[in-house]
Amino acid sequence: MEVKVLNISGKETGAKVQLSKDIFGIEPNDHAIYLDVKQFLANQRQGTHKSKQRNEIAGSTRKLYKQKGTGGARAGSIKSPLFNGGGRIFGPQPRDYSFKLNKKLKALARKSALAYKAKDNNVVILEDFNFDTAKTKNFTSLLGALNFTGQKTLLVLSDANKNVYLASRNIQGAKVVVASDLNTYDVLNARKLVFTTGSVKTLEEALAK
Asked: Looking at the keywords, is Transmembrane present (predicted)?
């Protein structure tokens, strides 16, 4: 798949990039995508939820009232879950939600997500660039030149760039990542994928292993 290279003004530079068929042209695997996104979201959970069980409630251990003759149900402790302020039955406890996936499956999921974006013509290639200053208007101008204003956009760089990252930070729906940190969830969550020529090479080398 051949894609024209644009500059930050949105104009063609005359250069073209050949996207690898082994990455952007594969038959997507929906189940691999599902598992990878599920793992990503699970890993975001803190798992610090906690409620007190019956043995953790502070309260007297005396019997509330006599066993028989009251006309009510038997009650032995004020800590019972049946009473207001009692312990909770099967309440949430701290736990780790993360789980393991094989590297090959995660790579397949990323390739599948990228293939979907390429199939829908939502992949744009920019020549390598840098901002002189970390100003939001620089990134806003870039999105305007590409006609991506108001759309969820993921910009993939080959290396970390502080000015570009800071310029995008205040723009809703815009995100900047390094090619080595690209994940399936971010790819699918974005409407448009913007790669630099350097990031395409970095990504293809990483997924070719």
From this structure: no
Burial label, 26 (beta-carbon count in 10 A; 0-12, 13-18, 19+): middle
Where do the domains of the chain lie? 2-45+98-207, 47-96
Query: What is the 3 state secondary structure string of 85-110?
Result: CCCCCCCCCCCCCCCCCCHHHHHHHH
- Nearest Cα residue to 61 out of 77, 82, 80, 81: 77
- Count of residues making up the chain: 209
**2-45+98-207: which CATH topology?**
Ribosomal Protein L4; Chain: A; (3.40.1370)
DSSP 145-204: HTT-TTS-EEEEESS--HHHHHHHTTSTTEEEEEGGG--HHHHHH-SEEEEEHHHHHHHH
CA distance 113 to 198: 20
Q: Which of 147, 202, 156, 158 is nearest to 175 (CA)?
A: 156
For the chain, list residues with pLDDT below 70.
209
Cα four-point dihedral sign 62, 67, 71, 75: positive
pLDDT digits (tens, 9 = 90+) for 130-144: 898 889 999 999 999
Q: Tell the burial category of 171 from Cβ atoms under 10 Å away from its Cβ (0-12, 13-18, 19+).
A: middle
CA distances to 64, 65, 72, 145, 185 from 76, rounded to whole Å, are 6, 8, 12, 73, 52
